[in-house]
Fold these 2 entries.
Entry 1:
Amino acid sequence: MLASSASARAVFRSCPNAIKRDPFLWLYCVTQNVFDHSLPSTTCFTHSPSEASCTSSALDSLSVRRSNVFTSHSILRNCLPATARCMGGTSFEVKTDNDVVRFSIGKPLDKIGPSNNGNKKMAVTRRVKMSKKAKLNELRFYRLKAKKKMNSPNPQVRIIYKLEKAKRKEAWLIEKLRKFEVPKAPAETHDPEILTEEEKHYLKRTGEKKKNYVPVGRRGVFGGVVLNMHLHWKKHETVKVICKPCKPGQVHEYAEELARLSKGIVIDIKPNNSIIFYRGKNYVRPKVMSPPDTLSKNKALEKYKYEQSLEHTSQFIEKLENELEEYQKHVARFKKANEDATQESLVKT
């Protein structure tokens, strides 16, 4: 193998630059020296049907034109196997399929075309890349189309356009809010502590007098709220949770959610949207004080923004539907009045 590679380099140095740039002639020169045991001693190339010239070595055939090399594909097909040979650190592969000589340097030929295994049809889908100018033209077209609907003299066209746009936004917001749905962890079995009325009254009074509290703001219940409750329970038996801002009836939902996450006991719910929690007689602070099935602070804020936007969008859709219904009723009354006027004029005549 070393001798063959040395002979290949010697042939490559002895060839002129024009031959080095021609891959077919260079390949033929290398095969003549490396595989001289498999190639015949004399190889014929034909310029035309009437002329023929024979050469006895590869160096004598350097002046032959490129068209003559294409006629020697049958000889190369019989002599060279379709395997990769390494010469001088570079691998090249030769294949002779369908009477065509193909070779590649450093790349396997099997990856050139898609292959179908059995009855499976591999569908190659190509994304059509749009130019920047085409994208701008498309956006300009949709912008002009929307502007035409917004400035339409017909009020029904304007209302329907706003309604469709708001419904698209509502569907998009619902899809966004689905990403913030956290699967609830299975409830752990624990013995519920039974408190007497006297104990509840005592805990209620102590919870009102003490100043330690945990705020629940616009983010709602998330991991940080439960963490703060456990930190307060380190030194106090009770903690007050203040929900602000809070919708009517939402304070009871917060109380159930916090009781499930913190394993605390709800003592009292005040009219000013404050809840008093008791940690329990056999309280043991958990290792992970922030439950894993809760949102982080940033994600809770992002969820609140989407919820607020969804609420306003739903109200806007309801308002547009009422406007459209009133406009249709107005058009129906106007048509009926015109029909009555035409009938009266016909009766008078």
Entry 2:
Amino acid sequence: MPYWHRIYGFGIINASESLSRRYNNNLCGNLPTTFSIGSALQSFNLHGNKVQGTIPLFLENCQRLEVLDVGDNLLNDTFPMWLGTLPELRVLSLRSNKLHGPIRTLGSGTMYLELRMLDLSSNAFTGNVPMSMFQHLKSVRKIDPSKKAPRLEGHIPRSLGSLSSVESLDLSGNHLVGEIPAQFASLTALEVLSLSYIHLKGCILKEINFIPLRTIHMKPSVPISSELGNLKNLNDLLLHNNQLSGPIPSELGNLKSLNHLLLHYNHLSGPIPNELWNLKNLNYLVLSNNKLSGPNSSELGNVKNFNHLKLSDNQLSGPIPSELGNLKNLNDLLLSNNQLIGSIPSSIGNLRNLQYLFLDDNNLTEESPSSFCNLTSLKFLHLLRNNLKGKILQCLGNISGLQSVMMSHNNLSGEIPLSICNLTSLQSLDLGRNN
């Protein structure tokens, strides 16, 4: 039975309930110091009590110790370097105490060889985590520095490339600069890489395009590399809120396992590559707040697994493709603030799961299609600032879940349907600036 659910290098640990909750009591006083040489103790868990004092030095005699969890107590001590010599130690949680001073290692090459989980967060440690620490953590599976943990600074440590078992590496929010080390090419088990809010330079992923990554979350200030298309096992590509510019590489269409593609809030330009519409597993596409242009391809109707399609705040032009009606699983359709023209296709009425329909701030004309009556799951209907004409549909009053109806600044005419009064969930209604 494993001793962990999630494994973090220096961040917050969510250990199993048997380790982190079952032992929450109100025990107080100092830790005992009576362990003898050759002790058979394998697990020592006092998590979530009111224990004070120091971490007893005699624990180094417990050579079979696998779990040491004294997190969430009142211990007042410096970092116990000697714990790294325990040959069987797999779980070490010292979080949320009053530990202080710098974090140091003994410099031995045999430290923490079996360690899976290390949590030093929410203490009063000073300075930065020594880079030498990483070369010992051969068995760690997940490294995630938290905001309350000691920070890394300088270049990304090349020694991370020796952690052949690591599956998730999150270095976000640290004081790291420079390029991704070439040694990362050795991280053959890596599935999740997060490098947000640090200052990378050079070509993204130049050295790691053969790693079986599942998720990438970066905040770089360089263009998107076409080499990302080599990461054939990638599930999630999250590059939003950056300064990325240029076109979306068509090579992203090679990522057949991709579920989430988030590129919003950048400066990307040019058309949306048709190759993206061949990603049959894609269910979350967010390209909003860029400078993308050109018409929407009819081929987007091929992505039948779409749940969320957000293309608002771009420069997309032409009519709305009727093939959108093929996306039967769609929950969100956001096309607002573009340059779309023509009528709203009646096929949108096929989207029975649709909850958010934002078509505002375009140049749409003609009447709202009567097929809107089929959108029984709809919560938000925003059609404002277009050139729509005709009457407000009576059937809108039958869509009981509607919370926001915004249809101002059009050429609508006639009376306001009395059925609107049936919308007990309605919070916002704007029909101003019409006829």
